[in-house]
Amino acid sequence: MGNSLGKLFTVTSFGESHGRCIGVVIDGCPAGLPLTEADIQIELDKRKPGTGVASTRRVEEDKVEILSGVFKRRTTGAPLCLLIWNKDTDSSAYERIKNLLRPGHADCTAAMKYGGFNDYRGGGQFSGRITAGFVMAGTVARMLLGIIGVEILAHTVEIGGIKTKSAGLPALRKADDNPLKCADPAATARMLKAIEQARLEGDSLGGIIEGMALNVPVGLGEPVFDTLEGDLAKALFAIPAVKGVEFGAGFSAAKMKGSENNDTFIIKKGKIQTIGNNAGGILGGISNGMPVVVRVAVKPTPSIGKTQNTVNIKTMESAELDIRGRHDACIVPRAVPVVTAMMAIVLCDFALRAQLIPEVLK
Amino acid sequence: MGNSLGKLFTVTSFGESHGRCIGVVIDGCPAGLPLTEADIQIELDKRKPGTGVASTRRVEEDKVEILSGVFKRRTTGAPLCLLIWNKDTDSSAYERIKNLLRPGHADCTAAMKYGGFNDYRGGGQFSGRITAGFVMAGTVARMLLGIIGVEILAHTVEIGGIKTKSAGLPALRKADDNPLKCADPAATARMLKAIEQARLEGDSLGGIIEGMALNVPVGLGEPVFDTLEGDLAKALFAIPAVKGVEFGAGFSAAKMKGSENNDTFIIKKGKIQTIGNNAGGILGGISNGMPVVVRVAVKPTPSIGKTQNTVNIKTMESAELDIRGRHDACIVPRAVPVVTAMMAIVLCDFALRAQLIPEVLK
Amino acid sequence: MGNSLGKLFTVTSFGESHGRCIGVVIDGCPAGLPLTEADIQIELDKRKPGTGVASTRRVEEDKVEILSGVFKRRTTGAPLCLLIWNKDTDSSAYERIKNLLRPGHADCTAAMKYGGFNDYRGGGQFSGRITAGFVMAGTVARMLLGIIGVEILAHTVEIGGIKTKSAGLPALRKADDNPLKCADPAATARMLKAIEQARLEGDSLGGIIEGMALNVPVGLGEPVFDTLEGDLAKALFAIPAVKGVEFGAGFSAAKMKGSENNDTFIIKKGKIQTIGNNAGGILGGISNGMPVVVRVAVKPTPSIGKTQNTVNIKTMESAELDIRGRHDACIVPRAVPVVTAMMAIVLCDFALRAQLIPEVLK
Amino acid sequence: MGNSLGKLFTVTSFGESHGRCIGVVIDGCPAGLPLTEADIQIELDKRKPGTGVASTRRVEEDKVEILSGVFKRRTTGAPLCLLIWNKDTDSSAYERIKNLLRPGHADCTAAMKYGGFNDYRGGGQFSGRITAGFVMAGTVARMLLGIIGVEILAHTVEIGGIKTKSAGLPALRKADDNPLKCADPAATARMLKAIEQARLEGDSLGGIIEGMALNVPVGLGEPVFDTLEGDLAKALFAIPAVKGVEFGAGFSAAKMKGSENNDTFIIKKGKIQTIGNNAGGILGGISNGMPVVVRVAVKPTPSIGKTQNTVNIKTMESAELDIRGRHDACIVPRAVPVVTAMMAIVLCDFALRAQLIPEVLK
């Protein structure tokens, strides 16, 4: 249980890293949305490993298939099943280390929770690969949000302690083309070096991703419990390796005074807006019309080349672990489209709850 | 909608700051738990305004009443309704400023979302007072978790930029007695001064609260979407003023290398444990048996004494706002028992989902 | 758990027959609905015991109180808590027989499910009295449905094997004034006699209630699982004593041929309608614009005056049971407004899901 | 939305009659259940069209594939995706009549609800074929229930007005082998004739199916809303063509007196049982340990050979409809394994809610 997300736009995830496929079912997609496999493929390709230093060497075609819910190139109102088949799944590396708990991974908790029946190959459903399904679902959500003008952007703002300079919208919109999904070319160069250095050391780096939703209508969020912050955070923590989420000024708000942190209301173009956006576009758990801004802390990939001390869960003795396999020295860039996807899923769900997207699109 | 939290231990919130009452219904509490109003009152009193500098001057008795679900001093398995009556509700201050949007508050978003029908007095359901209900529900959850040995602590670790030194368990357990719910007496003294200074300036301070759950069984959390981090974060963001949530090393993990951030597995007392706890007790979205550690950023109270520029939502013109009323210069200490409560609600829900708390207690 | 109903219009029930109160929380009621306690009281009074032969002798004032969610006589968008206090609760009769399982009642299953911790006085939450909460919630739902023109009627069509003749709409609309909520005066007379006879024998009668929703928009129901029939049936089975539910031709459809049972489509007043309504207004689990017609089988009240053989759950020996207390010889008429209420709750939920009722009413 | 069923054992349905596949995702299946495709195939084959008179002529291999959630022939705790591919999908017949509303079908409601974007070929997701997914999920549920000894049987008790004689358990257990899933050979012969006669007339027959669950533990069901009757009924109404559901004495209880309908409690083999089972094994919405007995009214298949008057939804004019295609003269026998499946899904969900099936099977 726990594999469904969303109340009206409901995404159910299934599949494993080294099983037959990765897929999602989307229940609640309005009827009439033009949708082809190509629409989804574009987004899916963004989270593919690149050829650069940051990427894993697993080569997957990852061609999405729409199994249901689309007829004559339009959604029908029935559930969508979207799926990619696993092909390049050499699991031999995992057989060798299957009893050695990889530090920082879900091996230990999964084995204990599921009585050892979990699919340990590549981490099973705990693999980052599961996020391919999130991206597929997120693409549909983004298309729905596009109807009401919402735009979602995400980009890398920190890797290995190297921070980017703040960038304007045009630069942010081009971040997708950057090898690190970063809007700051100078920082990118330094980040790439740091990643290469980490790789050479058999180590890995983490970072911070910023997500931003523009043109969000006022009124998304359903307090007191289904706040916009809360549901976004829940969705973002489903991305493996995320350990922190903050909105607007976030943790730095804790250091401000009220007079500094309060965003002053003004009238601009006949609308109520704020000067500054310490609130990250959310007041009282509800979108206020300003950009929704979230930052997500991604821990360094736990799979590293260095030999690590660990425990053999079978013998319950200490052991040395030497992971080979194919791994990212820095997962951050590949997580960027996943952040976008999770934001889209949550915002789409709230837009449906607020009746801002119709059940049938004309 | 959006006023229920939890899948098996389900808390539904109702009530407003200046309405008749604040209450919760708990559905899914196992039968047989000894429960009296006194059990809940103890916790509820912790979030009461103190007499110190940090507190509001609203004087509420806040006597909890159990309206249903308890018979012969034991829970029956039927829903619990817990409630406090509002008594000291002078709403005149709010009538005066009802069209002036208080910066940093939900006035604007609530008015726009609910078409102006929302109860604006004291912020209605957006008031911090709603968290009294969270604490009532959290107390029941904590009692249930107590059965399986889980202990939950929370304490202030930062106010106005002043950080505490790390403290041992004995000090943390005593933090409840500290006026700022802080385990570091030296820091407390400086924080109190800073709060007093802010109050004199008609300003307010934010801070950071750390929550900790000890003796958490392995296996709480239901990935891929209902992760322990995700559901905790969602619950914590329901606390008004929370703008960030991080687990274990959190945002600082983003700066570490994998070899630094990975917690090494070891065998200790026949159990698998880790050296260090950068994971905050959670791997793969599932508790790993180490303490669950979360930090929560609380923004400075938006209600400040200083005159602020804002907008009159009726005339759609700019206006000056001069809040009088009764307000906290620093809400952080009062939010500490609420952090505990939200952690308890989520952990209890997951413990029931993992069948670790029986449906009938003997 | 299991005490909430509805996805967007969510009703959570609490309270017990001989506890402090009976109440509901409604989450998801749109903002702006004019609502006073008097609106609800009218409906609530319909399920009150009458002075006639069919009724119990428990005398309850049952004055509804709105505890939250209404401000300036309009709903606010926040959860509504509606409640009646129990006053006339003499539980001594239940103490005497608390270990004697009343045949046909929930005593046995409740005691075993909840480990004996259940509130056995008056059946606790298994009492028919819990349906007062259903009626309160149903009234709000009916008011919302009224906005889109939906009208819901229910009436007694059979008691003790005595069937009514079919009646036209004007008669059905007056059934509320009939002591048995029956639209056929001749049948009513015979039913009253039968009920009086049963009472004299220390026995009870069951019957059948027909519910009808008129002017239902096309498109309510969310197959494949949340069908209109399915969700209506689920809600109706929550009424204690209901043992069967059928739509349109129902069980008699099983005896027809397809050519007889199929309702022919025609164009009438520019709309697609059907000749006949064997489908009960529902095709494919979705309303088709014809009247939604449901029939509900109500078993005879299990509490009877006759001495019954049973089991003492404490001694696990056979025993004789002699129920005194206050009981209905026929519960059917009092269940009629509850049928209306449950239909309203479900239809309102589906109307919100289909975005036919706005989130904010102007 | 509306395509998921169950709280802890959650079945999500997808697929269409003439799309690529029919599938389900099961979230919440405990880890460690031995499961192969062959286990599911056996049940799936039971709902296949036979070669007899009652059956359609569509020939589908319907080979189930397990796409996820099973590793080393055991369930892993991760979601199961089960699927059959559609192969024999000649949709030309549907193109011809796509604007002609088939009486008794979902064509009209689906077209209007989904704005004409629905997949009309073979009824899309409204096809009886969707129940293949229900059977796949039901098989897993039955295997889980088997662990705690629950046995589920279903059989035909009426077709075309021809009723069966009541049969003992041995006969009921063999009903699967009967061409009409009927335990009464004499009635079967007459039913077969009636079906053949209906087919010759270009007509169809309905009937009644009885489902029975044996050895059900006491305590399944979560009142007040999630009653065992209510959730079973909801699940059963998801089977296309079901128009009525009753438990135990059902509608005939409405004609009884309380003294007749009440099942007397007795002690038998040290357990509390009842003489008679008018309650159908359910009191207060909770299983009482007696067999759970439900009867389901199935309307005659709406697709008939006879020419029917109807409406052309495009031209909004009256029209004649002449369905050719491949259709069952009586769907009842094929619905029998679906009744079993729906009962299993609901009982399994409640058994998990009552913690009677562990999260990990050893």
Features:
homotetramer; 362 residues; alpha+beta; Chorismate synthase, AroC fold; 5-stranded antiparallel sheet; 9 helices; 23% strand; globular
Secondary-structure blueprint:
4 copies of one chain form a homotetramer.
Chain A: E1 4-5, E2 10-15, E3 21-27, H1 37-46, E4 65-68, E5 70-71, E6 74-75, E7 80-85, H2 92-96, H3 107-113, H4 131-147, E8 151-159, E9 162-163, H5 169-174, H6 185-200, E10 207-214, H7 228-237, E11 242-247, H8 258-261, E12 264-268, E13 271-275, E14 282-283, E15 286-287, E16 292-298, E17 308-312, E18 317-321, H9 332-353
Helix pairs in contact in A: 1-4, 4-9, 7-9
Characterize the structure shown.
With 362 residues, chain A is an alpha+beta fold. Chain A has a single domain, classed as Chorismate synthase AroC (Chorismate synthase, AroC fold, 4-Layer Sandwich). Helices cover 27% and strands 23% of the residues of chain A. Chain A contains nine helices and 18 strands. In chain A, strands 1-2-3-7-4 form a five-stranded antiparallel beta sheet, covered by helices on one side. The longest helix of chain A is centred in the C-terminal third of the chain and has 22 residues, at 332-353. Chain A is globular. The mean pLDDT of chain A is 94. Chains C and D meet through strand 1, helix 3, helix 7, strand 11 and helix 8 of C and strand 1, helix 3, helix 7, strand 11 and helix 8 of D. Strand 11 (242-247) of chain A pairs antiparallel with strand 11 (242-247) of chain B, so a sheet runs across the interface.
